[in-house]
Amino acid sequence: MKREGKGNEIGFVPRMLDFLGLERNVLVMIAALSLQGFGMALWAPYRSKVLEALGASPAQIGLFSTLGVFMTAAAPYFGGLLSDRLGRGRQLILASTMALTGFAIYRLAPVWWVFIPGALLLQAADSFRFMGSLTPVSYTHLRAHDTSLHLVC
Questions:
Q1: Single pTM value for the model
Q2: How far, in Å, CA of 27 to CA of 37, rounded?
Q3: Which of residues 45 and 29 earns the better pLDDT score?
Q4: Distances 96 to 4, 22, 42, 120, 134 between C-alpha atoms, Å
Q5: What is the pLDDT of residues 90-121, one digit of tens each?
Q6: Do 89 and 76 contact (CB within 8 A), yes or no?
């Protein structure tokens, strides 16, 4: 494989993209989603302490965590529907907007129960982003290996 530039040298990133069968924009999207997920997970251990400081009892903190688990289980279904209807670009923009709104609700919450809509938005946004990121990786992988879609389904 020859590339333009400094002779026949191929950099690390282009070699990895060729090896993984990914396009550059897909790699950037995966890196951005990973950083967003890291940011969301970074403060998660402190969520119960924040709820406690806002006046939630241990049972209410448990209810809040349970709602998050149920939302994690239910949201991918709706994320897949949105991805089919809106397209992955619009879905990723919608998911980022939902996440920003959820974090704004978290930041401005005067009492613990205001965290619930923020948590629902954040869990839904996380699932929607995940569903929106599946499509480009799958199609890129199929294209790289000359596999038609009907063989996968």
A1: 0.64
A2: 15
A3: 45
A4: 36, 23, 17, 14, 16
A5: 887 888 888 889 889 988 989 989 888 988 88
A6: no
d(CA 135, CA 148): 14
Rounded distance between C-alpha atoms, residue 19 and residue 124, angstroms: 33
Does residue 35 contact residue 96 with C-beta atoms inside 8 Å? no
- Enter the tokens of residue 108: 């401005």
pLDDT at 138 over 60: no
- Exposed/middle/buried for 107, CB within 10 Å: 0-12, 13-18, 19+? exposed
> What is the Rg, in whole angstroms, of the alpha carbon atoms belonging to the chain?
20
The 3-state secondary structure of the chain, one letter per residue? CCCCCCCCCCCHHHHHHHHHCCCHHHHHHHHHHHHHHHHHHHCHHHHHHHHHHCCCCHHHHHHHHHHHHHHHHHHHHHHHHHHHHHCHHHHHHHHHHHHHHHHHHHHHCCCHHHHHHHHHHHHHHHHHHHHHHHHHHHHHHHHHCCCCHHHHC
Q: Residue 9 is encoded by which pair of tokens?
A: 């040298």
